Amino acid sequence: MRAIRRFTVRTVLPVELAALGELVQNLRWSWHPETMDLFAEVDPETWQRVGHDPVALLGAVEADRLAELARDRRFLRKLADAADDLREYMTAPRWYQTLPGAPAAIGYFSPEYGIAAALPQYSGGLGILAGDHLKAASDLGVPILGVGLLYRHGYFSQSLSAEGWQQEHYPSLDPGGLPLSLLKEEDGTPSRVAIPLPEGRALHAQIWIAQAGRVPLLLLDSDVAENDNAARDVTDRLYGGGTDHRLMQELLLGIGGVRALRAYCRVTGHPEPEVFHTNEGHAGFLGLERIRELTEHRLSFDEALEAVRAGTVFTTHTPVPAGIDRFPAEMIAKQFGGDNAWPTVPVERILALGAEPDAPEGGAPIFNMAVMGMRLAQRVNGVSELHGAVSREMFQGLWPGFDLDDIPIGSITNGVHAPTWVAREVMELAGKELPSLIEVAQGWEGVQKLSDEDIWGIRGRLRRMLVEAARERLRASWRARGASTAELGWIDEALSPDVLTFGFARRVPSYKRLTLMLKDPDRLKQLLLDPDRPVQIVIAGKAHPADEGGKKLIQQIVKFADREDVRHRIVFLPDYDMALGQLMVQGCDVWMNNPLRPLEACGTSGMKAALNGGLNLSIRDGWWDEWYDGDNGWAIPTADGVEDPDRRDDLEAGALYDLIEREVADRFYDRAGNAHPRRWLDMVKHTLSSLGPKVLAGRMLHDYVVALYTPAAESARELSASEYTKAREFAAWKLRVTRAWPGVRVEHIEASGIGDTPELGVSMEVHATVALGELAPDDVSVEAAYGKVGVHDQLVEPSYITLTAESVGDDGKAAYTGVVPLDRTGAFGYTVRVVPAHPLMSSPAELGLIAVPEEPAGMTSGTLR
């Protein structure tokens, strides 16, 4: 018979081993090798059998063994040292504690988190990035409170059919068997949050806590008795179900997440967050919940909106509209209207927040979660410089009339958490020779002093570890596909620890082009089987369960890798997870990435490989576009402008083959006698010294704290002071300016002082007449834009100077003047624009209002000599 419910019975530890429970419950062990060593000593054989999962270890180890350890003075000393180290890590001041004015706490919301393989609550890059964000915050002492959902089936486990088709499995996860604790009230009852639903229903959730070092991660779980069956299933699986299901998950993450934070801070005494960070649009409803809180404390909707925006950061991760959650507006209206309406938050205002600015006329209204997230946040960023530029173009419609460079979407390039992803051998070498590398991100130039022998020796060991693990996984996969043991002798010789090894592991949407390497199968075969300079490729990746196209791509790569003539040189390893990802980024010599540019927002796997002494072979997209320098890897040329996708793939695949054959393999195998490949190792050292300090998650967190969190906290404090006086004033000012803006016009522009033949170094006086209507000069900024002129007389990356109001007439017309330097030769132009101005604005484009000359003649251009 099949059990209708499963749960985990945890062992009762002897008093002498109580500290072992503390170590297991804090996920810091997942990036702390010394603690992992201690767990291994508990029972080495069981530790291997449970896949290095300490919770499972304590559930499987025999009581006699625990009693033995409780009498082992050597083990008890090591346990005491590990416990003391954790307590010191949790309490000692760190970098963040030296900062003046930084926020007391930051709420960080994400639909998924990749903390450790033992807590499978992630699907891909978004979750891995969120996990690294929390770990780096812990290491730096940044007081983040993470918020997410607890999925009872995680994402999915992947296997292959005999035909190479992806198959999904959803194992049940028991919270009692995970490193979690339940948030409880003083009376011992579980804390609960509830969200009213239409038709008198409600969505209830309890709150689990995963302690990631110093950072608590709150995970909401709807599998509680108070819910009906549909509500209990809201947190069944990550990215599962239809539109209704996704909406329920996002309501729980955003609205329920804020309520969970309030409960946690009330129960524990933790400071309330001053800043709320929305990691993608999935949690966007958190802004509505905060508006509801404030409007119930006598602020108007507009006043609450300003207070909420000031303290909100929104990070977008997608470069394509298809990656954004969008719901029919009628679904949102049903949720927030009728008998389920919030009395102080009109449903019409909610719908307006998510309305797409460029929606086609006559179509069904759509509610866009990313658009709402941006309207609810005063600070918005992409995750690489190129992605920031792509996002400005993608969302330009939210700020009509502004040039792309004026769109207030910045960028902070992602980073990776080195202690999680860098091999222990590399960390120990760095700790011995260059102890300040990871902790303070200094001294990376010292990498050049490392010996070729040390680096090459570590790279060889890591490659061998990958090969051995790949063989084990390959054998298990073939058995699951129906092969007998007698058929699998070839796996003992699959891959080689001495062959140049490429890694390719991604999610499998079409734009990542998993099968680009198969564009010319014969050419690929030649590279794999080259008698003198062979290459081998280790591949992994999951397609979304509903993505039939992605599954077909996996099947194509599997069918090629199944061929008897090449299967010892190219393998597909199913069930890509954090553990496999660690093996691959540590063991591969080259990390390959060939997305369709510019559709990769950032991509961080190549960063992990670089920190392990690997090199990148990638399309110049995401982070590689900004940090490739010509000597730290290879850039695959892109066929930009070629509209035929097959033709573009042909060209870029050909360039990929050429690079592998003529440059990558040539450098790897360029050895004099039995010497190490000096040119290859020179490139490895340059990669480590040039990329090392940039790709660390600590650098990323530093950027978030300095550029976004601290300014957001300062803005939020200013607007909330004195019973939200500034929020009230700012909202009233915005309303007045918006209503009066149709009366603002640039009526006349003229220049003087440059003569008939403008020359470099001359200063030009600009005079403008601006009709201000009902506004005062202090309400606006009148600016001269000037610089190089491009196609159709468009200014290219213009510079700006603020013009001075010389006089204001009774008719509301003001005269402005300023001096423009003619600081470059060639085609030169200028114009004048008017934008709102207020000390509390974070960008001139914040209101989306701009006035420019109506006639093309308003811009004068010419050629400077």
UniProtKB/TrEMBL annotation:
Its cofactor is pyridoxal 5'-phosphate. It catalyses: [(1->4)-alpha-D-glucosyl](n) + phosphate = [(1->4)-alpha-D-glucosyl](n-1) + alpha-D-glucose 1-phosphate. Keywords: Allosteric enzyme, Carbohydrate metabolism, Glycosyltransferase, Pyridoxal phosphate, Transferase. Signal peptide: none annotated. Residues 13-119 form the DUF3417 domain. InterPro entries: Agluc_phsphrylas (IPR011834), Glyco_trans_35 (IPR000811), Glycogen/Maltodextrin_Phosph (IPR052182), Glycogen_phosphorylase_DUF3417 (IPR024517), Pyridoxal_P_attach_site (IPR035090). It holds the Pfam family DUF3417. Its EC number is 2.4.1.1. Belongs to the glycogen phosphorylase family. Phosphorylase is an important allosteric enzyme in carbohydrate metabolism. Enzymes from different sources differ in their regulatory mechanisms and in their natural substrates. However, all known phosphorylases share catalytic and structural properties. NCBIfam families: more_P_ylases (TIGR02094). This is glycogen phosphorylase. It comes from Sphaerisporangium dianthi.
